[in-house]
Design goal:
Helix 1 runs antiparallel to helix 2, helix 1 packs parallel to helix 5 and helix 4 runs antiparallel to helix 5. By secondary structure, this protein is an all-alpha fold. It has a single domain, classed as Methane Monooxygenase Hydroxylase, Chain G, domain 1 (Up-down Bundle).
Amino acid sequence: MNDITSFIEILEMQKENLEVFIEVAAKKQRALLENDRELFDETLKDEEFYISKLTRNEKDKQALLRKIFGRSLTEEERKLSKLIPLLQKYSPENEGKKIEELQLELKNLAEKLSKINNQNMFLIRNARQFLIDTINTLMNEKRASIFDRKV
């Protein structure tokens, strides 16, 4: 197996891990909406697991790129859009096309994950603010005299 084929396999693993990570993020959203603490805790563990898998994929990808190019690449050079022309020098045309397809799929998955994560953050912030407001209301009611309390 050549290095470019190995690179494609790493990208495919990243794609699979991102797809599952998106499912976990959607499950987390369901847990937030349903106020299911047990499901929420489960999704946090799953997120940690897939984050570590994605981190490992990225480290493997960087190590392979160092092997292919004989040096570490800059952050700008590591972007798939910049890598494709560089890698095409080392690969047959069909492998270059496969990398381009994977780049587009990874980009779309990353955008989908970002959207779900933003929605989840919105839900978490609102739930947190609701709790703070509820606690403040309860604390203020206890401090008010019996005649000043709202009924």
